[in-house]
Structures are given as structure tokens and as C-alpha cells.
Write a structure and sequence with these properties.
Blueprint lengths: L2 H19 L2 H4 L7 H19 L1 H11 L1 H6 L4 H27 L9 H13 L11 H21 L3 H28 L1
Helix pairs in contact: 3-4, 4-6, 7-8, 7-9, 8-9
Length: 189
């Protein structure tokens, strides 16, 4: 590495540390609105535009609907899937940073099974088909709000963790059943 590259990396590192250690509440006053809401809205807008307005987004939906037909239509499945997984990992990284900032700690021993359940439940409740080819980013966020309302509301009422899991599972089973019945109804027509 040249001295210029080392200096650029050092400057970027200092800038990132300064940005993350800045008390953002004093720079721009946003009364009553948590910063995570702005992050979620930014990610929502970016992914909505990407999936709804670009050729890449159409390819993602096409591959989800029928990968073989997409391949025969000239779509490079490996490239589109790789980029889709990269973007999903990037989004998961953003979520991990937000979650770590909320907890103010990081632990490799934390079991993320509940978070995975809630993520899948949010997507399915929002209307994303488990069979592929259908769903929108906004619907996943709305499904996440439903899951958060269930978890938070039951927590405020004093229900135990197993009771929250059962209710979440029942809502998830209901959403999957509706999706399967709707898919079967579309296949008949």
C-alpha cells in the first residue's frame, strides 16, 4: 500500500469514529423522533426504488417466481442471486449495528433465534410469499410493525415469553395458510 492509501484509510477511520461518537441530538434537534426511524425510512426508500424501478428488481422478482423461466429468458441467475444476497447481508449488517447500539454491547453468545423468527414472521405477515415472486419492502416493514406490536403489547401486559412465541406462531401460521390458499386459488384460475 502506498502512503496515500494509508493516509486515506486513516482519515476515513478517524472520520467514522468521530461521526459515531458525536452526540447527534445536539447537532440537529429532532424532537421525539428516534434516529433509528430515519435509518429505517432511508433503507425502505432505497430498497423500494431498487426493487421497484430497476431491471435488477424485476430480475429478483422473476427469479423468485420461476428461476428456470428467468434463466431461459437470459437472466444471469448466479450474478443476480449473489447481488441479492450481498444486499440482504448489508441490510442485516445495518440492523446489527442498530441493535448493538440499542443494547450498547455486543455478545457472541447471544442467541438470535427469536430475531430470525420475528424477521420471517414480519415478511410473511406483510404479504411476502414463501413460494417466491411476490412481496414488497413496505409490506415487510408493516409486518414488522405488527410483530413489534404483538411483542411489545404482550410484554406490557405481563405475558411470559412462551406466550408471546405462541401468539406470534399462531399469527405466522395464519399468514402462511392465507398465502397458501390464495396461491392455490390463483393456480386454479
Amino acid at each position: 500500500m502506498s502512503a496515500l492509501q494509508i493516509a486515506a484509510v486513516l482519515a476515513a477511520g478517524v472520520a467514522i469514529v468521530w461521526l459515531w461518537n458525536t452526540n447527534r441530538g445536539t447537532l440537529v434537534e429532532i424532537s421525539g423522533v428516534p434516529w433509528v426511524l430515519l435509518v429505517v425510512l432511508g433503507v425502505l426508500a432505497t430498497w423500494t426504488l431498487l426493487l421497484g424501478r430497476t431491471r435488477f428488481g424485476r430480475y429478483v422478482y422473476a427469479i423468485g417466481g420461476n428461476a428456470e423461466a428467468s434463466r431461459r429468458g437470459g437472466v444471469n441467475l448466479a450474478r443476480i442471486r449473489t447481488i441479492a444476497f450481498m444486499l440482504a447481508s448489508f441490510t442485516a449488517g445495518i440492523a446489527g449495528i442498530v441493535y448493538a447500539s440499542r443494547l450498547r454491547s455486543v455478545s457472541p453468545s447471544y442467541d438470535g433465534g427469536t430475531l430470525v423468527l420475528y424477521a420471517v414472521a414480519a415478511a410473511v405477515i406483510g404479504g411476502t410469499s414463501l413460494f417466491g415472486g411476490r412481496g414488497k419492502v413496505l409490506h415487510g416493514v408493516l409486518g414488522g410493525l405488527v410483530i413489534a406490536a404483538i411483542d411489545n403489547g404482550m410484554g406490557l401486559q405481563g405475558y411470559s415469553a412462551p406466550a408471546k412465541y405462541v401468539v406470534t406462531a399462531l399469527v405466522l401460521v395464519g399468514a402462511v395458510t392465507i398465502d397458501a390458499v390464495a396461491r392455490r386459488g390463483r393456480a386454479r384460475t
